[in-house]
Specification:
Length: 215
């Protein structure tokens, strides 16, 4: 098996999970790279993705586990036939599938905000509060939840923020957070979100995926 690191930017940020899966199948077919298939009555190529990003969110550090053999020129072969917005950056061989969806526990996002200086103070006041209730979608419908403990860290930049947010079972999407903050400060603003780093659980500790997989 192999683990690939790739981008998801530009037009690719509007691909949902199933569309991305179909695109990956076509990319590997065009690159003539064989993929193992699942067992059973309806075998399918083995691709294992982490929890998908929301539509419109970019990433420079997406990961996917593929049931394929490692080859020295695999990145070139994939990038020669890839789709716009998806570039394969790193490839490493792994012994078995790592459940990315379950084991990636947080992600760091760069959130760029238009005219940030005009609303920076308002956002700062909201984030200083002990509680931050927003509406989150669940299997049973929308529920109000205090997400303050799902914001692991944040720092202000010249044109926005860098925030580390919870992933996995307690997933906090950055776009939902921005919508909630906009409603709370009663000011609309334009923003762009990009995942710039992901963290995985190792021996009950949290480490960067780059360090964990040596990519």
């Amino acid at each position: 098996m192999i683990l690939l690191k790739h981008t998801k930017v530009g037009s690719a940020k509007y691909l949902g999970h199933l569309d991305l899966l179909r695109s990956f199948k076509r990319i590997f077919n065009r690159a003539e790279i064989s993929i193992e298939k699942s067992q059973g009555f309806n075998p399918h190529p083995l691709f294992f993705f982490p929890q998908p990003l929301g539509l419109g969110i970019e990433s420079e550090c997406e990961l996917v586990v593929v049931g394929a053999n490692y080859e020295n020129n695999i990145l070139n072969r994939l990038n020669n036939v890839t789709i716009p917005g998806v570039k394969f950056i790193e490839c490493v061989e792994i012994e078995k599938n790592i459940n990315l969806a379950a084991n990636i526990v947080s992600s760091k996002f760069l959130i760029e905000i238009e005219n940030f200086d005009d609303i920076k103070k308002d956002i700062e006041e909201i984030l200083k509060e002990k509680e931050l209730f927003i509406s989150l979608k669940t299997k049973s419908g929308e529920k109000e939840r205090d997400v303050k403990d799902m914001i692991y860290s944040y720092e202000f930049a010249n044109n926005g923020m860098v925030m580390e947010l919870s992933c996995g079972n307690n997933n906090l999407r950055p776009d939902y957070l921005m919508i909630a903050i906009s409603n709370l400060i009663k000011k609309e603003f334009y923003y762009k979100c990009k995942r710039i780093e992901a963290f995985i659980k190792k021996d009950e500790k949290k480490v960067s995926c780059n360090s964990y997989f040596k990519i």
